[in-house]
């Protein structure tokens, strides 16, 4: 098949696997692992960054999970992709927001909890990152105050990209339940069948 999505589901590739499952298009999933596989010459020809995920769609080679989701949603996602330019711009904004405002802070927690050996773990780093996350979480909560999803009544690629980035926060058990709109929205996003299908993959 001329359409392949690379990356194991237990990694940031889950974002794009979730995205492609939302579209319902056919694809070959190649469960490339971030250790080893992603540094092979064959894979570096697909993504010279040596990171997962990557998408091949015909002649297009694409990396960066949120960019892959914007492409998939626009080309194959129907209502997943906003039609009017203002909402399209908001989808870009939220996608960039997720990887710039949430990702660096959540990664500090992920690194401490999953990669630093327990005896070397720095609780202060986790505490400070959690404190700093309050600012973007408040922004997200306010954005979700008057509508179920970021662009209105429907789940779109804006929600997909922010929620899929925030899967790592869920994984580390970060409690954002005091942000009630965020919690309601996250529960709705994480109960989608497409995510369950993505998580069931290698
Ligand atoms: N900004 C990239 C990050 C991708 C990324 O860092 N993936 C990790 C796995 S979670 C990886 O492939 N790491 C391999 C390495 O850094 O060598 C995206 O969102 O697609």
Description of the structure:
The chain has about 200 residues and is α+β, with helices and mostly antiparallel strands. Strands 2-1-3-4 form a four-stranded mixed β-sheet, covered by helices on one side. It is built from nine helices and four strands; from the N terminus they run E-H-E-H-E-E-H-H-H-H-H-H-H. It has two domains: about 80 residues, Glutaredoxin (3-Layer(aba) Sandwich); about 120 residues, Glutathione S-transferase Yfyf (Class Pi), Chain A, domain 2 (Up-down Bundle), CATH 1.20.1050. The mean pLDDT is about 95. The chain binds glutathione. Glutathione binds next to loops.
Overall number of domains: 2
Q: How many separate helices?
A: 9
Query: Structural class, from secondary structure content?
Result: alpha+beta
Radius of gyration: 17 Å
CATH topology of the largest domain: Glutathione S-transferase Yfyf (Class Pi), Chain A, domain 2
Mean pLDDT: 97
CATH class of the largest domain: Mainly Alpha
Kindly state the percentage of residues in helix.
55-70%
Instruction: List segments where confidence is low: pLDDT < 50 over at least 5 consecutive residues.
Output: none
How do the strands of the widest beta sheet line up side by side? 2-1-3-4
Beta-strand portion reads 5-15%
The biggest beta sheet, please?
4 strands, mixed
Query: What is the level-2 CATH architecture name of the largest domain?
Result: Up-down Bundle
**Small molecules (ligands, ions, cofactors) in the structure:** glutathione
Topology order in helix (H) and strand (E) letters: EHEHEEHHHHHHH
Instruction: Report how far the terminal alpha carbons are from each other.
Output: 19 Å
